[in-house]
Amino acid sequence: MSNLMDYLDWRGDLTFREAPFNEVDNLILAQLVYVEFAGIVPAPGEEGTITVKEACELFFAAHDRKEIMERVSMTKTAAFVLEKMAQTERFCNAQLFGYINDISKEEQSQFSVVCVRLDDKSIYVSFSGTDNTIVGWRENFNMGYLSETPGQLKAVDYLNHMVKEDWKKIRVGGHSKGGNLSVYASVKCDRNIQKRIVKVYSNDGPGFSEEMIQSKEYQRMLPKIKTILPESSIVGMLLEHQEKFEVVKSSQSGIQQHDAMSWEVLGSHFVYVEEVAPQSILLDETMKKWIFQLTKEQREEIVDTVFSMLDDAKIYTVDDFYNSKWKKVQELMKAKSKLSPETQELFSQALRMLWKTGNQTVKKSVKQAVLEKVEEANSLFSTDKSKKSMKSSKK
């Protein structure tokens, strides 16, 4: 099936004045921010812009294709999306500016964003999802116990300070954690900016706390939020969603469906299915039940401990983790043995709870499936019995 690259081949010769912005354009721009634009795209406060075509030339002058492909992260293909965009009439002259890539170990925050001005004069603010750094992944887990993360606060501040009065039509979007930041920033930013936001895109982005989604400010922005999930979504099903979401078909399976390059495209839209896969719903129900059995303090202690162990083993990126030598694995095991007896017991208790919750969820699902089959059989039996009765009465 077709994907983002095929879409760029098919629709690349049409400008935004000729063919209006659509949901596939959104996902392409949400991928664009994964490219390392430091020293290429002007930062906030710096004058000027750079076109997609110019940025592409500078990026590939500094980066080797083989080096990009050797990375572990599924977002590495963003560089090749940039390359394809630069070859199209639709995107080659789009202007990039306001780029930030801020990774703070002290704040436990990985924050990246870029603005794109299209030829229809609209602006797309693209917030990045989790990159290849362990700090970035930690911020995702921090959402499980923090009311707001440093990245979310930075996203709000970015919109409030970056948006200019002449920006009449604004779209805000992102993939993965970037989708969460897009919604959060749009909900919390100044009202005069909110009025000019025409759409907020969360592409397989995690949700929020119950308190957040029930707030008046969230409800006010709700009609503008568009959430898109792959059929076996894992990341996007985390935490709470109130908005309706659309489910797109993916050429991959399991966690690999989080890769936007696997989302199937037909024309100017995604290929949709009716609902997320049963296994995704099961995992979501299991994780939520398990998480809510733990106190916020317990969640924080578990996250702190796991990432401290990774730090002790000098594992700073996903590549470090996957390419770890046996020595680093031993260092991780040593770090675990240094935990206090109380923390070790918390880990054991949490794992027991997760196992128990998973079993209960699966049993409930199987029971429900059996009941549905029994009801279906009863219905068929009743129909068959009714037909026999009708034949008998005719005789």
Automatic annotation (TrEMBL):
Gene3D superfamilies: alpha/beta hydrolase. This is DUF2974 domain-containing protein. It comes from Roseburia inulinivorans.
